[in-house]
Task: structure prediction
Amino acid sequence: MKQATSTAAPKGQAKQAASGTAPKGQAKQAASGTAPKGQAKQAASVAAPKGPPNSAVGSTVQEGQAKPPVNAVSVSATKRAAKRAVESQSSRSTPRVPIQAPDERTPPSPVHADSESDAEPREPPSAREARKPAPPSLATAHEDSANDSQEVPAAPQARKHTRPPLSAGALDADVLPVSALEPVRGTFMGAPLLLHTNPETIRTSGVIGSTMGRVVPGKSEGGYTFSGQARLFLRAVNRVGESFTEDAHGRRVQDSLPEGPQRCSLVVRNTSGRPIHLEIQGGLFSKYLTPQFPRDARGEPFTPHQQEPLDEDFTGLVSSEHGKVPDPRGLFFRGPSAVLAAGLMDSHLDSRPAQEREAHPLLRDDLDLSQLESVRLGTRGSFEGRLTVKPGATALVLEARQEKGGTLCALVNFTAVDAKGQVDPGARFRLATVSSPRSLSADELAAIAKGEHPLATSGDSESLLTIAAFPPLQGVLEAGSTFVGGRTLRLSRGDVDGDLVMSSLSPGHAGPAADVGVLTPTSRSEATKTPRTCDGGRGVSYELAYTLENPAPEPCEVELLLTSPRLHPQEQFFPQAGVLNLAMRVDGERVDVRVNQRGEGRVLAVLELPPEGRRQVRLEWTHVGGTFPPAGLEWRVRR
Result:
């Protein structure tokens, strides 16, 4: 199922949403009506309360049908208002859990098996910012959605809280549940996102993912072609050679161990009729292998701002009456995903004079960038370079070394530029990622370009493997790799409000969500027969702008929390890496955030609102792993 490269949905999608005949996988989009701007029929129910899949479109006037009576809208709105009031009253009656000191808190639930997860670079330097398309006006987007709507949604009742004030950085164990949060409003934009995370654990080397289709004489080539821009998110665990068998008791038993190191390569093919000039920038990090601060030829580490290294280890486990749980002494921002997220948020590329860079270059043993020109390395896995690809040629972009059992995570931006340094939309190219025991030969590159190279697999005994922490996603999110959204909140003392973000990646949380896009399958079509949504998918950057209004004649203070909301009161999830692990910017200030388990939240900032005044708050982050959606943003006005 192919989406247009703009943020608008395909023409036929609106009718599908109205008639309830959307393909499987888009059902929740049709129900929630919160897809990106351009899906007019769906946008009608953005603020409607949650209900069965067809409830959001039940009152929509179908083509060829008579219009309902004039009072139909008001009756529908009245019913919705009553339902929302019941839900609001129910949520306010939920018992609150007081904040406890770490040593007094109820022991956490056991760690889930295979819950570890390790990481996107933001567009760096101002030269690229100039090329970045300006985001649409949020106010205009909301007005358009309101005009397209055929119903007037009931105004939500303000929720009240009785929580004591918390300072920035404090952890709270009483946050709003999923049912009390509004789906975030916004739209995708920017370069299409290519996700290569299936298979994530590789036991047989080969093509991890590719948009280069098999060439059949007389027919057009299958697969997806990028125009001017692309972003790639890759995560691969090297377990090549490992195999499992099942014993007499039905238990999984390791039959053979992983063999040794592998090479992970990025490959590009120019499908234009002329040369293309690519600027390649991003981050690539492997635990214990990638230096956070690379050394130069003299052995001196590159630390231009005297930053401290982050802990690459996960939190250790300790025994408790509930089983093995993360050690409470290590519950802070850490792990491979934290390192990459930090690098992509505030990496520092080598800015020394060219003469000094040539005399004493920075070194990375884990990454071969010899195919690129004008290479610059930076802190915490960041890099950039340029590559010119001849017409019809297939070229190696980079090659990363991957140790036995090691995890590699990368987020790389590809931008084709013209002679003026602007995005070249006429430049067409395709991408592939490959795992191999040695460097790729010319024959192997040719086979990859023709779609004839063997595919990487997770082994013959996949049914015996533990379910992965993230669903395997493989494909292209054509709508874009940056989600831009936000809204205006009118807040009074004691009010609490919140939005649901990154909401449907985890099983069981695929409820209403505006940040939804359908994945276009790549060459591994057998793994993506059903369209998958990717809101909250790794590799997506979020840029949210909120306007806070204070109607009172006296000032007030608002606490902003990042939360991991529960779907139901008994839900427990305490992964070893933390349930949320994000490097964020709040009004330009860098914040490293870890939320330990489901049902908790961390105070990002305490904001002051002037009397009868307003202020805008901007939030930015990129989901690069180590985070388990859904997430919530909670706005709590001190009483």
In short: The longest strand covers residues 276-286. Residues 72-92 form the longest helix (21 residues). DSSP finds nine helices and 33 strands in the chain. Residues 450 and 581 are 39 Å apart (CA to CA).
